[in-house]
Amino acid sequence: MSQVTVTEHLLLHQQKSPAATGVFTQLLYDLILSAKLISRSVNKAGLLDVLGETGETNVQGEKVQKLDEYANSVLIHRMERSGALCMMASEENADVIVVSDRFERGDYILIFDPLDGSSNIDVNVNVGTIFSIHKRESGKKGDPGLEDILQPGDRQVAAGYFLYGPSTMMVYTTGFGVHGFTLDPSVGEFLLSHPNMTIPERGKIYSVNEGNYPLWDDKTKSAINHFKSFDNWRSSPYSARYVGSLVADFHRTLLYGGIFAYPRNYKKTGQGEGKLRLLCEAAPLAFVAEQAGGKAIDGTRRIMEIVPEQLHERVPLFIGSRGDVDDVAGFLA
Ligand code: AHM
Ligand code: MG
Q1: In this predicted structure, what is the pLDDT of residue 167?
Q2: What pTM value is reported for the model?
Q3: What's the confidence (pLDDT) of residue 63?
Q4: Per the count of CB atoms within 10 A, which of 174, 214, 313, 329 is most buried?
């Protein structure tokens, strides 16, 4: 593994990037510090339970929080003080979080899912933090509002995720390729381990919660059946893999290729919707996927082009290898 840290990488290799400013570097630095704190707690998840069993407080006399609440509060507390942001939005908060005017404010906007896949924590399976960074339209002054955050994915300045797995990893893009870093716990730094990541053109893994099959429309059923048939490009069925943590399922898709899908589910009412959130889950991963040469669609539209109407808007998501996503698009057209 190289000895290049994330911030060095940003400064050394991406000088052309408008994102490589001092303020942005500070933002990234604080984000990384937050992730290290979250990673430390995730690693001790089993122990936290032990520490918390006598009641509401741990040995330090602090309240034992659920890990997703902890991750959320770490991010809000640290990022509010970064001096780079004017506003944040978290999957855990119903409304936008405007940076208090007690702190220095910048033009950047941070959207995050603090601990994605948190239902997997209790069974010691990978979870992650997803982030998306936008910039407020230039020239806008005063308190930012919801309209500043409802931007399409195409306007992201940077996006990525931290994966808390056997190793903790950070994968991110600023629009100049996708780069992966692995946390070396002995030095406490993320070091460049996966430069210029690319998604294979085709994969042989499909990833979807197939328990929802009866809730899909016929076109979606055909699209997923295609990967399990002999009629696909391999003339052989794909393998199925589904962690149920988006970051983990996406990370595997990025490295091995294939497709991750969370289609629209139709309930008895006939109303159908996706589960994953456009702003804090689908759009940041779509930016990473496209920068790695892959694709991300909601069935018919590029995820990156969808203009959100609500903060917690949900979308169907099909993401991964270009050829595999194109196959789905063919069925859903
Ligand atoms: P969360 O943000 O509440 O954790 O929910 C999102 C998670 C994703 O990580 C994962 O892809 C999906 O939900 C799994 O959903 P399901 O259990 O319906 O398959
Ligand atoms: Mg989530």
Answers
A1: 95
A2: 0.94
A3: 56
A4: 174
**C-alpha 308 – ligand 1 centre gap (Å):** 20
Confirm if 70 and 222 have CB atoms less than 8 A apart.
no
Residue in 171, 151, 71, 162 with CA at minimum distance from that of residue 108: 151
- Residue 76 CA to ligand 1 center (angstroms) comes to 22
pLDDT of res. 19: 58
User: CA dihedral in degrees (99, 27, 305, 14; nearest 10)?
Assistant: 160
* Count of Cβ atoms closer than 10 Å to residue 309 Cβ: 8
Percent of the chain predicted with pLDDT > 70: 91
What average pLDDT does the segment 170-196 reach?
95
Tokens of 96: 């936008």
pLDDT for the residue 148: 94
Looking at ligand 1, which atom is closest to the CA of residue 118?
4
For ligand 1, atom 5, the nearest C-alpha belongs to 117
CA of 326 to the centre of ligand 1 (A): 24
CA of 222 to the centre of ligand 2 (A): 27
pLDDT tens readout for residues 27-45: 999 999 999 999 999 888 7
Q: How many angstroms separate the CA atoms of 256 and 303, rounded? A: 21
Domains located in the chain, CATH noted: 6-194 (3.30.540.10), 205-332 (3.40.190.80)
Q: Are strands 205-207 and 189-194 parallel, antiparallel or unpaired?
A: unpaired
Which residues line ligand 1 at a C-beta cut-off of 6 Å? 91, 113, 116-119, 209, 244-246, 249, 275
In angstroms, rounded to a whole number, what is the distance separating the alpha carbons of residues 196 and 219? 35
Alpha carbons 121 and 278: distance in angstroms, whole number? 23
